[in-house]
Amino acid sequence: MSPIVIKVGGALLEDQAAADNLLQNIQAIMHQRPVVLVHGGGPLVETLMASLGLTSSKIDGLRVTPDEHMPYICGALAGSANKTLCATALKAGITPVGLSLLDGNMVNCTAMHDKYGAVGTPVAQDANLLNSLLAQQFLPVISSIGSSAQGRLLNINADQAATVIAQLVNGELILLSNVKGVLDASKQLLTQLDATAIDKLVVDGVILDGMKVKTDAAMLAANSLGKPVTIASWSASLEDILQQHTGTRITPQPVKAGEKQ
Q1: Which GO terms describe its molecular function (predicted)?
Q2: Nearest CA to 81 among 158, 165, 164?
Q3: Catalytic annotation on 103?
Q4: Known catalytic membership, residue 42
Q5: CB 27 within 8 A of CB 187
Q6: In 10 A of CB 202, how many CB atoms?
Q7: Active-site residue among 120, 159, 216, 247?
Q8: Contacts of 244 (CB under 8 A, 6+ apart)
Q9: What residue ranges define each of the domains in the chain, with the CATH number in brackets?
Q10: Pairwise CA distance, residues 144 & 234, whole Å
Protein backbone atom coordinates (compact mmCIF):
# COMPACT_ATOMS: atom_id res chain seq x y z
CA MET A 1 0.00 0.00 0.00
CA SER A 2 1.07 3.60 -0.55
CA PRO A 3 2.84 5.34 2.36
CA ILE A 4 1.05 7.64 4.76
CA VAL A 5 2.70 11.05 5.05
CA ILE A 6 1.83 12.71 8.36
CA LYS A 7 2.61 16.36 9.05
CA VAL A 8 2.63 17.69 12.60
CA GLY A 9 2.91 21.28 13.77
CA GLY A 10 5.58 22.37 16.20
CA ALA A 11 3.02 22.82 19.00
CA LEU A 12 2.99 19.01 19.35
CA LEU A 13 6.45 19.29 20.91
CA GLU A 14 4.90 21.24 23.79
CA ASP A 15 2.51 18.38 24.66
CA GLN A 16 4.53 15.26 25.46
CA ALA A 17 1.44 13.15 26.18
CA ALA A 18 -0.02 13.99 22.76
CA ALA A 19 3.32 13.29 21.09
CA ASP A 20 3.60 9.92 22.86
CA ASN A 21 0.05 9.03 21.82
CA LEU A 22 0.65 9.96 18.17
CA LEU A 23 3.88 7.98 17.89
CA GLN A 24 2.21 4.96 19.50
CA ASN A 25 -0.53 5.32 16.87
CA ILE A 26 2.11 5.48 14.15
CA GLN A 27 3.86 2.40 15.54
CA ALA A 28 0.61 0.42 15.23
CA ILE A 29 -0.10 1.70 11.70
CA MET A 30 3.44 0.85 10.53
CA HIS A 31 2.56 -2.86 10.76
CA GLN A 32 0.17 -2.24 7.85
CA ARG A 33 1.66 0.66 5.85
CA PRO A 34 4.89 2.68 5.65
CA VAL A 35 4.75 6.08 7.35
CA VAL A 36 6.73 9.31 6.87
CA LEU A 37 6.56 12.02 9.54
CA VAL A 38 7.12 15.67 8.48
CA HIS A 39 7.27 18.38 11.12
CA GLY A 40 7.44 22.10 11.69
CA GLY A 41 8.51 23.86 14.85
CA GLY A 42 7.00 27.34 14.95
CA PRO A 43 6.66 27.70 18.74
CA LEU A 44 10.21 26.42 19.27
CA VAL A 45 11.53 28.94 16.73
CA GLU A 46 9.57 31.79 18.33
CA THR A 47 10.89 30.92 21.79
CA LEU A 48 14.46 30.77 20.51
CA MET A 49 14.13 34.05 18.59
CA ALA A 50 12.76 35.78 21.69
CA SER A 51 15.58 34.44 23.89
CA LEU A 52 18.12 35.81 21.39
CA GLY A 53 16.37 39.17 21.19
CA LEU A 54 15.47 38.62 17.52
CA THR A 55 12.11 39.66 16.15
CA SER A 56 10.03 37.31 14.02
CA SER A 57 7.07 38.20 11.82
CA LYS A 58 4.76 36.55 9.32
CA ILE A 59 3.33 37.61 5.94
CA ASP A 60 0.32 35.67 4.61
CA GLY A 61 0.90 32.97 7.24
CA LEU A 62 4.56 32.45 6.21
CA ARG A 63 7.40 33.27 8.59
CA VAL A 64 9.73 36.01 7.29
CA THR A 65 13.24 34.57 7.61
CA PRO A 66 16.34 36.76 7.19
CA ASP A 67 19.39 34.71 6.10
CA GLU A 68 21.17 35.64 9.31
CA HIS A 69 18.41 33.87 11.29
CA MET A 70 18.81 30.58 9.40
CA PRO A 71 21.55 29.08 11.65
CA TYR A 72 19.19 29.41 14.62
CA ILE A 73 16.13 28.18 12.71
CA CYS A 74 18.10 25.20 11.38
CA GLY A 75 19.19 24.39 14.91
CA ALA A 76 15.63 24.61 16.22
CA LEU A 77 13.94 22.63 13.40
CA ALA A 78 16.54 20.19 12.06
CA GLY A 79 18.14 19.87 15.50
CA SER A 80 16.00 20.20 18.62
CA ALA A 81 12.54 19.56 17.10
CA ASN A 82 13.72 16.72 14.89
CA LYS A 83 15.67 14.89 17.57
CA THR A 84 12.89 15.33 20.15
CA LEU A 85 10.46 13.61 17.76
CA CYS A 86 13.03 10.91 16.95
CA ALA A 87 13.50 10.25 20.67
CA THR A 88 9.72 10.03 21.14
CA ALA A 89 9.61 7.54 18.25
CA LEU A 90 12.27 5.37 19.93
CA LYS A 91 10.22 5.47 23.13
CA ALA A 92 7.24 4.13 21.11
CA GLY A 93 9.28 1.21 19.76
CA ILE A 94 9.95 2.75 16.32
CA THR A 95 13.35 3.08 14.62
CA PRO A 96 13.47 6.66 13.28
CA VAL A 97 15.83 8.35 10.84
CA GLY A 98 16.02 12.13 11.25
CA LEU A 99 16.25 14.05 7.97
CA SER A 100 15.76 17.44 6.34
CA LEU A 101 14.28 18.10 2.90
CA LEU A 102 17.74 18.51 1.38
CA ASP A 103 19.04 15.08 2.48
CA GLY A 104 19.44 12.61 -0.37
CA ASN A 105 18.51 15.46 -2.73
CA MET A 106 14.89 14.56 -1.95
CA VAL A 107 13.56 18.06 -2.56
CA ASN A 108 14.84 21.02 -4.55
CA CYS A 109 13.94 24.44 -3.13
CA THR A 110 13.95 27.89 -4.70
CA ALA A 111 13.68 31.16 -2.80
CA MET A 112 10.33 32.92 -2.87
CA HIS A 113 9.90 36.70 -3.09
CA ASP A 114 12.61 38.76 -1.39
CA LYS A 115 10.07 40.08 1.13
CA TYR A 116 10.04 36.63 2.79
CA GLY A 117 13.84 36.37 3.08
CA ALA A 118 15.24 32.83 3.14
CA VAL A 119 11.86 31.18 2.59
CA GLY A 120 11.58 28.67 -0.23
CA THR A 121 9.21 26.81 -2.50
CA PRO A 122 9.85 23.03 -2.61
CA VAL A 123 9.75 20.71 -5.65
CA ALA A 124 10.01 16.91 -5.48
CA GLN A 125 13.39 15.72 -6.74
CA ASP A 126 14.72 12.24 -5.81
CA ALA A 127 12.80 9.54 -3.92
CA ASN A 128 15.60 6.95 -3.75
CA LEU A 129 16.67 7.61 -0.16
CA LEU A 130 13.10 7.80 1.12
CA ASN A 131 11.98 4.64 -0.69
CA SER A 132 15.02 2.77 0.62
CA LEU A 133 14.28 3.77 4.22
CA LEU A 134 10.59 2.86 3.91
CA ALA A 135 11.45 -0.53 2.41
CA GLN A 136 13.55 -1.23 5.53
CA GLN A 137 10.67 -0.20 7.84
CA PHE A 138 12.37 2.89 9.23
CA LEU A 139 10.31 5.97 10.13
CA PRO A 140 11.74 8.97 8.26
CA VAL A 141 11.27 12.08 10.43
CA ILE A 142 11.73 15.08 8.14
CA SER A 143 12.21 18.71 9.19
CA SER A 144 11.12 21.53 6.89
CA ILE A 145 14.64 22.85 6.21
CA GLY A 146 15.64 22.85 2.55
CA SER A 147 18.35 24.17 0.29
CA SER A 148 18.56 25.82 -3.11
CA ALA A 149 20.74 24.27 -5.82
CA GLN A 150 23.26 27.04 -4.97
CA GLY A 151 23.50 25.85 -1.36
CA ARG A 152 21.40 28.59 0.28
CA LEU A 153 19.58 27.17 3.29
CA LEU A 154 15.85 27.90 3.12
CA ASN A 155 12.99 27.74 5.61
CA ILE A 156 10.03 25.85 4.08
CA ASN A 157 6.46 25.99 5.36
CA ALA A 158 5.89 22.57 6.93
CA ASP A 159 2.51 22.02 5.23
CA GLN A 160 4.17 22.66 1.86
CA ALA A 161 7.06 20.39 2.85
CA ALA A 162 4.65 17.57 3.69
CA THR A 163 2.85 18.08 0.39
CA VAL A 164 6.03 17.69 -1.64
CA ILE A 165 7.05 14.58 0.34
CA ALA A 166 3.62 13.07 -0.39
CA GLN A 167 4.18 13.84 -4.08
CA LEU A 168 7.61 12.21 -3.88
CA VAL A 169 6.27 8.85 -2.61
CA ASN A 170 2.70 9.08 -4.00
CA GLY A 171 1.52 8.97 -0.41
CA GLU A 172 -1.72 9.65 1.44
CA LEU A 173 -1.32 13.01 3.16
CA ILE A 174 -2.64 13.81 6.64
CA LEU A 175 -2.06 17.30 8.07
CA LEU A 176 -2.32 17.20 11.87
CA SER A 177 -2.49 20.18 14.23
CA ASN A 178 -4.12 21.19 17.53
CA VAL A 179 -7.48 21.83 15.82
CA LYS A 180 -9.87 19.09 14.72
CA GLY A 181 -10.04 20.29 11.11
CA VAL A 182 -11.36 23.22 9.11
CA LEU A 183 -14.11 25.01 11.01
CA ASP A 184 -16.99 27.09 9.67
CA ALA A 185 -17.91 30.59 10.90
CA SER A 186 -19.74 28.98 13.87
CA LYS A 187 -16.63 26.94 14.78
CA GLN A 188 -18.26 23.69 13.64
CA LEU A 189 -16.19 21.04 11.85
CA LEU A 190 -16.52 20.90 8.06
CA THR A 191 -16.11 17.24 7.10
CA GLN A 192 -15.42 17.76 3.39
CA LEU A 193 -14.30 20.65 1.19
CA ASP A 194 -13.41 21.18 -2.45
CA ALA A 195 -11.71 24.13 -4.16
CA THR A 196 -14.98 26.04 -4.66
CA ALA A 197 -15.99 25.73 -1.02
CA ILE A 198 -12.50 26.70 0.17
CA ASP A 199 -12.45 29.79 -2.07
CA LYS A 200 -15.79 30.93 -0.65
CA LEU A 201 -14.57 30.46 2.94
CA VAL A 202 -11.47 32.51 2.13
CA VAL A 203 -13.55 35.32 0.59
CA ASP A 204 -15.86 35.26 3.62
CA GLY A 205 -12.88 35.61 5.96
CA VAL A 206 -13.45 32.22 7.63
CA ILE A 207 -10.21 30.63 6.40
CA LEU A 208 -7.29 32.93 7.27
CA ASP A 209 -3.51 33.01 7.67
CA GLY A 210 -2.06 29.67 8.76
CA MET A 211 -5.23 27.74 7.91
CA LYS A 212 -5.20 29.26 4.42
CA VAL A 213 -1.61 28.06 3.94
CA LYS A 214 -2.75 24.64 5.17
CA THR A 215 -5.79 24.40 2.88
CA ASP A 216 -3.74 25.69 -0.08
CA ALA A 217 -1.15 22.96 0.54
CA ALA A 218 -3.87 20.34 0.97
CA MET A 219 -5.60 21.40 -2.25
CA LEU A 220 -2.32 21.31 -4.18
CA ALA A 221 -1.58 17.84 -2.82
CA ALA A 222 -5.09 16.54 -3.51
CA ASN A 223 -4.96 17.73 -7.12
CA SER A 224 -1.41 16.56 -7.83
CA LEU A 225 -1.93 13.16 -6.19
CA GLY A 226 -5.49 12.67 -7.40
CA LYS A 227 -6.61 11.66 -3.89
CA PRO A 228 -8.15 13.40 -0.87
CA VAL A 229 -6.02 15.00 1.84
CA THR A 230 -7.15 15.09 5.47
CA ILE A 231 -6.74 17.96 7.94
CA ALA A 232 -7.30 16.68 11.48
CA SER A 233 -6.25 16.82 15.14
CA TRP A 234 -3.25 14.91 16.43
CA SER A 235 -5.35 13.89 19.44
CA ALA A 236 -7.58 11.75 17.17
CA SER A 237 -6.64 8.15 16.42
CA LEU A 238 -5.01 7.56 13.05
CA GLU A 239 -7.43 4.68 12.50
CA ASP A 240 -10.40 7.07 12.85
CA ILE A 241 -8.74 9.57 10.52
CA LEU A 242 -7.97 6.95 7.87
CA GLN A 243 -11.53 5.63 8.08
CA GLN A 244 -12.87 9.19 7.64
CA HIS A 245 -14.55 9.30 11.06
CA THR A 246 -12.96 12.65 11.91
CA GLY A 247 -11.19 15.62 10.34
CA THR A 248 -11.79 17.56 7.12
CA ARG A 249 -11.22 15.84 3.78
CA ILE A 250 -9.98 18.11 0.99
CA THR A 251 -11.08 16.54 -2.29
CA PRO A 252 -9.30 17.00 -5.64
CA GLN A 253 -10.80 18.81 -8.61
CA PRO A 254 -12.58 16.36 -10.94
CA VAL A 255 -10.56 15.52 -14.05
CA LYS A 256 -12.39 16.75 -17.15
CA ALA A 257 -12.70 14.55 -20.24
CA GLY A 258 -9.54 14.71 -22.32
CA GLU A 259 -7.40 16.05 -19.44
CA LYS A 260 -4.52 14.11 -17.94
CA GLN A 261 -4.37 13.66 -14.16
Answers
A1: acetylglutamate kinase activity; ATP binding
A2: 158
A3: no
A4: yes
A5: no
A6: 15
A7: 159
A8: 230
A9: 4-250 (3.40.1160.10)
A10: 18
Q: Indicate the annotated binding residues for substrate.
A: 41-42, 63, 155
What is the Cα–Cα distance from 228 to 249, expressed in whole angstroms?
6
pLDDT tens across the length of the chain (261 residues): 899 999 998 889 889 999 999 999 999 999 999 999 999 988 888 888 889 998 878 887 777 889 999 999 999 999 999 999 999 999 999 999 999 999 999 999 999 999 999 999 999 999 999 999 999 999 999 999 999 999 999 999 898 899 999 999 999 999 998 888 999 999 999 999 999 999 999 999 999 888 888 898 889 889 988 899 999 999 999 999 999 889 999 999 876 655 554
In contact, 149 and 115? CB cutoff 8 Å: no
Name the active-site residue from 9, 103, 214, 247: 214
Which one of 7, 9, 40, 98 is the catalytic residue? 7
For this structure, is 159 an active site residue? yes
Q: Which amino acid, residue 116?
A: Y
Q: Which residues belong to the annotated binding site? A: 41-42, 63, 155
**Sign of the alpha-carbon dihedral angle for 37, 157, 56, 153:** positive
Distance separating alpha carbons of residues 8 and 37, to the nearest angstrom? 8
